[in-house]
Amino acid sequence: MLSFTAQRFAAPQSPCPPYDEDSGIYLAWSTSPAGPFAPPARPWEPLPAGAELSTCLYRPVLPHSLDFASDDCQGVPCHLIMRLDSTVFHGPQTGRWWLAYSWYTNSPPTLAWELANHGQHVHLVELDLKDPFAVRCDLATAQIHAGTPHDGETLARLAASCSGCEQMLSMTRGPLGEEMLRDGVSLGVVEAPSLFRRGEYVYLLLSGSNWDSPYYHVYWVAAKSVEELVYTNPGRLVGRFLIPSDGQAFGHGSAVLGPDGERWYFVHHRLAQVPCEQSGCKRDVWVSPIEFDDRGDGLADVHIRPRWPAQDPSFSVAVSAGRQEAPPHALPAEARDD
């Protein structure tokens, strides 16, 4: 299954227009990672994500991508318009399929709620069990608002989740560390969802603040079901994961199960905070281990350990279910700019 962000226009565009938060999410599939993902027998692919285009009467009021590029919410609640950062999660215990994605509020805001919650958010929507390439054509389809940049309760819990976790914590800081404003109101960003299950808990990794900000970071939430990941649930677990420091910021990645079938790793971006005129805002790819702590709360080792990758980028990869480990392979940060 190929899930990606793209802009589709009703007519050819020349030159290629700039990105204006007007993208959508598209899905295609192939029997091989080598493709083809749009073979002659399926000329309609890739499909804009959402309920089935031709048969679902409810498609406009269910989460979906627009057929063509547009930078507003088309008069519907903005979480219904899928924009980018898609990932598909198949629950190994429940067998249910979910699509996680990011969406934007209208610019300028058109509702009072948008004024207080301006920016980028993350939702999860259940996919059709019989057709995991589509949102279920059912008004009762589960929709989970899991990430919002203006959630003061989550911010407070993140700051208190460890010693030093209050450092470089913001969802609303821009490239110069400034508070971002758009349309005269605070603009925040939560994006890049990645889901995995370990034991009894489903984990959701999210990136906060702007991608080119020195405050760009990764935090986690966890619960025993996808539905319980909703940001209004006080019972979900919350903590920081990748914390920026030493002029380096980290975010936007995917959780990957390691070769021993037990340990998890996070493949993600790193950005050195130097002016873009010098760096071109280039990012490179890092791998960070996802390690778990028992905090003595009776839940065992379910809390993801916070990590400052800029200070210690090295780690080992377990290569079997036994004790054999590969030697540390991560290079020092200053050696990884290529």
From TrEMBL:
What the entry lists under InterPro entries is as follows: Glyco_hydro_43, Glyco_hydro_beta-prop_sf
Highest rank taxon of the organism: Bacteria
The record's region (Disordered) falls at 315-338
Q: Which SUPFAM superfamilies match?
A: Arabinanase/levansucrase/invertase (SSF75005)
Alphabetized UniProt keyword annotations = Glycosidase, Hydrolase
Which Pfam families has this protein been placed in? Answer: Glyco_hydro_43
Protein family: Belongs to the glycosyl hydrolase 43 family.
**What's the protein called, per UniProt?**
Family 43 glycosylhydrolase
The organism is Nannocystis bainbridge
